[in-house]
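Appendix C reproduces, verbatim, an entry submitted by the partner laboratory led by Prof. M.T., so that reviewers can inspect both the input and the predicted structure.
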Amino acid sequence: MTGGAAFFTGISGCARTSGQSAANFNATSPAFSTNSELPTRFTCDGAGVSPPLIVENIPKPTAALAVAVEYDRGVINEPVLWTLWNVPTQNRIPADIPRTATVDSLDGARQGRRPGQPPGYDPPCPPAGKVYEHRFQVHALSEELRVKGGATHDTARDAIGNNVLASSRITVTYTRSAETTEQE
């Protein structure tokens, strides 16, 4: 496993004790559910926009929320597609977050990037015919992160991991059809 895979595998489902039970912390999406297929809209075959997320039972004293998305490319490689942090403790993260380092509509929340790419959500785009598992993880953070927007996903991931109060994961799959890739 890469450092990223170990990080996300290690903290998913983890929770520190807090005033309100972190065990009830939950993230869902109105667009998909765990063990379902990721809708095309949120992939490179569709609009490629980030999905909406609903966050419930945010434990106290959560200072901010963070989102991290990765996909499973095998035992050694689990790339991160999105990091978003310093999201206000609200119950809804809207779809179609702009690809900017700082997100004004989320009170200055920040987004990471893959090397050589702009900040923001990189829509899943796996090779045709293979089923890929994607993990959308939402974390309650003990403090706002001092990481600047536009930092690499690795930098953001490390900072998130050091401040997690609670985590919730939505796991979905996505398989590109051969028809879609032939059009490219």
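The longest strand covers residues 164-175. Additional entries are available on request from the coordinating office.
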